[in-house]
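Bit of a strange request maybe. I'm writing a small parser for structure token strings and I need a real example to test against, not something I typed by hand. Could someone generate the tokens for this chain?
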Amino acid sequence: MSSRVPSGMDGWRREWHMTILNAEERVVVTGLGTVNAVAADPVEFTAALKGGVCGIGPITLFDTTGFRTHNGAQVRDFRPRDALPAGLSLKRMSRSDLFALVAAVQALSQAGLDPLPAELRDEMGVVIGGGAGGLLEAESIFRDYLRRGGRGTHFSRLSSVSCAATANHLTTLFGLYGPKATIMTACSSGATAVGLGMDWIRSGAARAMIAGGTEPLCRMTFASFNALQAVDPEYCRPFSGNRAGLSLGEAAGILILESLAGARQRGATVLAEVLGYGVTCDSHHMTAPDAGASGAVRAMRAALADARLGPEAVDYINAHGTGTPPNDVMETRAIKEVFGARAWEIPVSSTKSMHGHTLGASGALEAVVSVLAITEGFIPPTIHCETRDPECDLDYVGSGARPVAPRVVLSNSFAFGGNNTTVIFGRFRDEGGQHG
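Reply from user aminoacidic:
Good idea to test on real output. This should exercise your parser:
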């Protein structure tokens, strides 16, 4: 990440001078993929976001008896075999792996990289954010172990449990030899993965990256958030005065990142540009956000500096917006601190109100949302925002999607442990200064 801030530039048109950088330093998005509770692909996702579709409902993956809530944003009717290459063995893959593989196939197809050119394999890598990994499968293996009295259980099934398995499967399936990493920074993992993918392309370590995040629902995660009383018994209502907690969800969000030079060389269609990102920590508490919002403020400011933008450039903020009382107040304070008087003019929304809080995948899924907002020309709503909270008084876009085409989108991910990541996306501009 760069910390350079341009001097003497007072408008977004002058601040946003990525156009004068060498094309090798510019990182663009050429493909998107997602599987989540409201959509099976980006086209469905766009329609669901515009329509304010809620994917939060009764969980059927496991028994929720005795918990504070029985609801979550579960992916239903998931049929990976229909979307993945014929003959691919799915035996050792977890639900989390399969979400990511399906989303990656979608993203590569949109990017025009299906089939993947042989000359790109050495220069393309994978970085995936996550958390639970194959924990849903591990729970089933252990329950089977107990049921059998410790006999007859095939622990070879545990190969699907590792959080690193998803990145391993992706590189093997597509024959990639570039850099590979798995990021685990709780709910900011997916966003951090996108930022690291950008860094590797900027530095020349890779020409292209499969970057994103994946997360399944599982019993342990569900039990933990219920024990913390951090979940809403019905559905999350970010920024609403009657909010009572988050709604857990599951998803994968994948972006194909490329150097602008590489994308141009192969004639790819550019969807948007990754302008910058910022990563900070609170050093405060394992689960509670710092009420002073210093970490969130520093993350947003670091992202703006990395993007060489001033606060006046941002047209839309895709908020972390979990629906927990302290988190929404903290984020609101942080936005006010960073944007000053402009804070009340910038549309803000939390799409977690529709697809739930997908934890390690959330930052990547919301990166997909950010790019769709730019390419499809709309700002998604915060559904269920029913009553006013005097401490949350920004423009939360609660009355349906707005047909406004943002040029610059700032996406926040503020995680347990005080792991903060902000990523900024922009409408692609060619070197002549024209919108792509």
